[in-house]
UniProtKB/TrEMBL annotation:
Its cofactor is pyridoxal 5'-phosphate. Keywords: Decarboxylase, Lyase, Pyridoxal phosphate. GO terms for cellular component: cytosol. It is an enzyme of class 4 (lyase). Belongs to the group II decarboxylase family. Coiled coil: none annotated. InterPro entries: Glutamate_decarboxylase, PyrdxlP-dep_de-COase, PyrdxlP-dep_Trfase, PyrdxlP-dep_Trfase_major. One of its GO terms (molecular function) is glutamate decarboxylase activity. This is Glutamate decarboxylase. It comes from Brachypodium distachyon (Purple false brome).
Amino acid sequence: MALSRAQTNHGESLISSTFASRYVRAALPRFKIPEQSIPKEAAYQIINDELMLDGNPRLNLASFVTTWMEPECDKLIQNSINKNYVDMDEYPVTTELQNRCVNMIAHLFNAPIGDDETAVGVGTVGSSEAIMLAGLAFKRKWQNKMKAAGKPFDKPNIVTGANVQVCWEKFARYFEVELKEVKLREGYYVMDPEKAVELVDENTICVAAILGSTLNGEFEDVKMLNDLLVAKNAETGWDTPIHVDAASGGFIAPFIYPELEWDFRLPLVKSINVSGHKYGLVYAGVGWVVWRTKDDLPDELIFHINYLGADQPTFTLNFSKGSSQIIAQYYQLIRLGFEGYKDIMQNCRDNATVLREGIDKMGYFDIASKDSGVPLVAFSLKDSSRYTVFEVVESLRRFGWIVPAYTMPADAEHIAVMRVVIREDFSRGLAERLITDLNKVMGEMDTHAKKHVAAEPPVAKKTVHEIEKEVATYWRRLVDRKKSSLVC
């Protein structure tokens, strides 16, 4: 019996393989919209095939961002992916869930509110937006105070450590605030509270402390900073406040370091941001910012709109945003509860300990991270004269592992480290596998280095400038800059 074949207007068989169709035989335009439509199956296959060349998110040990959620939460996300959160009147339940999250997080951070009182805060598109909003609130309060006193208000500054995320530099540049950074030093990779307070002057809108440095996971000493600032404020008559950037550590410290004082228990802490999409255990991107009291958020920053159906107060940089991650955050908070979060964070810490001990036993590395803090392991080569951390991480990629390598900020640029972030889905088995693969790579690097030394004269030790140039060259090999927008 002959097999009949239906034909399209183009003469193409409807039952032929996707890979035999004309749509995958020729390259599609990359920078202009194609003239003609293509079948949905072909469009899916073409895009899916390109995406296969992306790294595996769960093996991306550079990222703090959540890469796994339960299937039930995935369903909630998919079911709400078409909801625009800004339409509060149309989606009142979603708005209510956001308000519940704000209150849960405010209580978690020991905000001075009663059980039936409403906390002051908002969901954001990650901690970057949260930091912008907190910074704007500090700037406006400082300006209002200086205006009332008849003093100049055109040169605000913010004091923080050189270890801050780039979003703080963006805030300072975009909103015309001087960024006064406390330099780092070898062996001390967070802001020194004493040096920070020395930089404070009458134009300081706040001091920003980091609960969980991106560089090595360390918690800064917010309690010491608070005490030193209290004394300086009493001496000078100023009222310089503190913001805590708890993007990474805000969903860690309350559960496994409950005795640590870093939050609203300290009187000068006026606002805190945290990333729900990091250890809040939600996919990117959702963040949160909460204020100590209503007085810490100037009324003039809050907009009221009514063209979506009812009066809606809003304080955001973004207007439209998805509802999915807010709903997912609420799912995690009620699904896990305090004990569930505690179990996950303790497991992450235990797996970080296994990895730290395994790396330390190899004898090649100095550990730059601490036993407490964000569960990660940062480590540098004891001897970088024969090969660098950048060569080590490049060799690890052939096993599938994506591990970042970078130099420390000023004044510790001569230190180059690797960092492995331990997330919920990084199991004990994966930790042991990474140790095995890293050990194998180091053995190969040693063998190659010995052959290289035997064949060539010794190379002089690299300067800081040469190391920085090497970093830039390494990342350029991974990113085709000619074909990207260069905007992240």
